[in-house]
Specification:
Helices cover about 40% and strands about 15% of the residues. It is α/β, with parallel strands linked by helices.
Length: about 260
Amino acid sequence: MQIGISTSCLYPLPTDEALLRLAQMDVREVEIFFNAGCETRGSLLRELCAIREAYGIRVQAVHPYFSFAESYTLFGIYPRRVQDAMELYKGLCEACRALDCDKLVLHGEKEPFSLSAQAYIERFAALAEQTRGDGVLLTQENVVRFRAAEPGFLRQMRQELGDLFAMTLDVKQAARSGVDPLSLAREFAPQIAHLHLSDHGPGGDCLPPGTGAFDFRALFATLYTNGFSGDGVLELYSSCFDQKDILPSCARKLQEFSEI
């Protein structure tokens, strides 16, 4: 397993500047979190590609900038907005290919839900088939107050979608949802393609590794034992730590924990 860092850790630094900053810190595994549509095409996308190529960076996954709006668009009840969202994902897949990235992260529908569980799964399947046709794996993230926060719904997705189902497991989001990340790792390891990693404990639910109470070695052991074969990134909110230069040491610590 390779552990990288999400450019979101440096938000609100512009995404290209964040990628360059990580590259200059000798980070070679990243997730790119787009924060504007203009970053997914044209000169800004070319700049991201140039940085990636110049420093030999591997982009593990891409995170869309419009996750907050997926309930209203992709998982909404107005067909034209749904179609617009599907087109946006075509553009994101083009950006993925330019960045030599094969995974895309989806939040999905947020409470209150307007779709039935079955309609959500059908909508996810349509998008997953579309992205797979473009060479990109769509991964469902377990985000608090979103439909996929519930393990029972994730089970339903897995059962009905078969090999179209893949996950991004986010440790902090599991903790916020009152779900044990180890239980998700144990049950869904073969379907987990990507990890968002952070610590949590009495000091907060999004902490630098080693400053909380979470047992990362147990997480990685559980994942490996149950068939996990993906990679992961450190994902911290910039408000949760003071010094930006601690990020590489945090990622190295996670890498050490993963080598069991």
